[in-house]
């Protein structure tokens, strides 16, 4: 199969399942956004990564330059839960490695632009995700419903 060409799916059920995977507004993303909003934090969603306009930040605190990504275990190769597909395994290995390389490149682009990058796994408990974001925001956060970041 030529490089970059997608392999044929095993069957239509698999194809539909993969096509229907959400790319944004996943349950873990929405849960984290709700928890942050409930703490009075304000943020933007889907902000383009500077220098890489086809990439977006899941949750962006633009004024403080904090970028938060909620990484899915499958798509981003979680060492604890990532599973290598058995069908078309060679293609998937390259695809998932490319995703991890893109994540590293995104982190580097944002860091070079003065952003702090927070990456949490979808499987992490919500309180750990919130703590990671609050740590990155540092002393700029005041508790209460008016901390418009």
Write the layout of secondary structure elements.
Elements lengths: L11 H8 L7 H12 L5 E6 L2 E10 L4 E6 L1 H4 L12 H24 L3 E6 L4 H12 L12
Parallel strand pairs: 3-4
Antiparallel strand pairs: 1-2, 2-3
Strand order of the largest sheet: 1-2-3-4
Query: Overall mean pLDDT score?
Result: 85
Structural domains: how many = 1
Secondary-structure element order, as H and E? HHEEEHHEH
CATH topology: Endonuclease, Chain A
Task: Report the portion of residues in β strands.
Answer: 15-25%
List keywords for this structure.
disordered C terminus, four-stranded mixed β-sheet, alpha+beta, globular, Endonuclease, Chain A, single chain, 149 residues, 40% helix, 4 strands
Describe the model:
The chain has 149 residues and is α+β, with helices and mostly antiparallel strands. The protein has one domain: VSR Endonuclease (Endonuclease, Chain A, 3-Layer(aba) Sandwich), CATH 3.40.960. The protein has 5 helices and 4 strands. It has a 4-stranded mixed beta sheet with strand order 1-2-3-4, sandwiched between helices. The radius of gyration is 17 Å and the shape is globular. The termini are far apart. The C terminus is likely disordered.
